[in-house]
UniProtKB/TrEMBL annotation:
Gene3D superfamilies: Cobalamin adenosyltransferase-like. Its EC number is 2.5.1.-. Residues 10-23 have a biased composition (Low complexity). It comes from the Bacteria. Keywords: ATP-binding, Cobalamin biosynthesis, Nucleotide-binding, Transferase. It comes from Variovorax terrae. SUPFAM superfamilies: Cobalamin adenosyltransferase-like (SSF89028). This is Cobalamin adenosyltransferase. Belongs to the Cob(I)alamin adenosyltransferase family. InterPro entries: CblAdoTrfase-like, CblAdoTrfase-like_sf, PduO-typ. GO terms for molecular function: ATP binding; corrinoid adenosyltransferase activity.
Amino acid sequence: MGNRLTQIATRTGDNGTTGLGDNTRVSKDSLRVHAMGDVDELNSNIGVLLCETLPPDVRELLIDIQHQLFNLGGELSIPGFELLKPEAVAQLDAALEKHNAQLPRLQEFILPAGTRAAALAHVCRTVARRAERAVVALDRAETLKEAPRQYLNRLSDLMFVLSRVLNRMDGGDDVYWKSERLARSGEAS
């Protein structure tokens, strides 16, 4: 990987470019920089979620996810490099299976609401979806490994599941959407 930063205000980006990990310079509005920025924003939002009271296993999982997202960001910053391993995707699959098993089946759509921790998990879910879209767009322009796209896809699903887990932490529940169409169809039966 490139040199570690020893100075933050380098002024090298004043011309609208930024340096990648392989020392090439690209426009700050390039697809690669968009993807890197969305992954960074996702990691920052997970950091905010970690400020909340969480079950210990969820806390440990989120901390590991932050490290994996840093690997993902590093991989995106060095074209052709691989830092995020398929095992990271498998870890999310296992976490999804574990946490999904303790939840009741969804009967209705739920709102991104409830406890503060659950609402923050929903924010992470939506940022993960945006990061995934940015990685898909980059992959169309330049070939990427599969793990980054798969990781973000699984992570957005996991953040949805964790929002449901966090809403139940102190005996709460999901916040259900009050669909007028569904309410009308219920009246007719």
